[in-house]
Amino acid sequence: MTQATTKKARAGSIIQVTRMDGKLIFEVKGAGSLTLDPDRVSAENRSRAMYHGFEQRVRDAGALLRDTDNGKSASPTDKLEAMRRIVDHLVSGATEWAIKATAGGGTDSGLTILALMRVKGWDIDAANAQVEKIALAKGLERKDVLANLAKNPEIIRAVGDIKAERAAKSAVDASDLLDEMGNLEDEDDE
């Protein structure tokens, strides 16, 4: 039985990583590929990899962007708070690696994140991390950052593309539904 495949590629990167059947497959464009089977790695090195991953995840949260309005770096308190959110999330028992976006203000946060991923070529973790960094740097709520991003023309186009792709995959005929709605209005008038 084959497990789900997950591909991670950074925008402009010649290296692509695929997770398949519990293994990591590293593909280097124009050079070939190699496979890492974690089951064949010693317990000591698996432990090191686990701690390295947690350390990197928490450190990345504290690597906040400079405030573009005043050019100042984020305060140590802001950095600690961003890191605390990640630690709290990880120890909460959550099974998701990334903190999920929360909807609010009429913005479909999940759709905005998907559009941001498409526009910037980021994976979900990178998109969420960038939204968090901007929220902290600007002193905004996450939902406010997403609401503002949702007004960006590139994001608007990407959202439209995503919706169109979803509609194309749907088994429901949108034209028939629209016609049927008109017929229902006619029946109500009678």
Description:
- The protein has a domain at 1-40.
- The chain has helices spanning 43-62, 76-91, 109-120, 124-138, 142-149, 153-169, 174-189, and strands spanning 6-9, 15-20, 23-28, 32-36.
- The chain is built from 7 helices and 4 strands, in the order E-E-E-E-H-H-H-H-H-H-H.
- The termini are far apart.
- With 190 residues, the chain is α+β, with helices and mostly antiparallel strands.
- The protein has a 4-stranded antiparallel β-sheet with strand order 1-2-3-4, with no helix packed on it.
- Mean pLDDT is 80; it is low at 102-106 and 186-190.
- Helix 3 packs across helix 5 (142-149) and helix 4 (124-138) packs across helix 5.
- A hairpin with a 2-residue loop joins strand 2 (15-20) and strand 3 (23-28).
Annotation keywords:
190 residues; alpha+beta; four-stranded antiparallel beta sheet; 7 helices; 11% strand; disordered C terminus
Percent helix, as a range, is 40-55%
Q: Roughly what fraction of the amino acids lie in strands?
A: 5-15%
Distance between the termini: 58 Å
Task: Tell me the number of helical segments per DSSP (H or I, 4 or more residues long).
Answer: 7
Please describe the biggest sheet, giving its number of strands, its sense, and whether it closes into a barrel: 4 strands, antiparallel
Radius of gyration from CA coordinates:
22 Å
Topology:
Layout: E1 6-9, E2 15-20, E3 23-28, E4 32-36, H1 43-62, H2 76-91, H3 109-120, H4 124-138, H5 142-149, H6 153-169, H7 174-189
Antiparallel strand pairs: 1-2, 2-3, 3-4
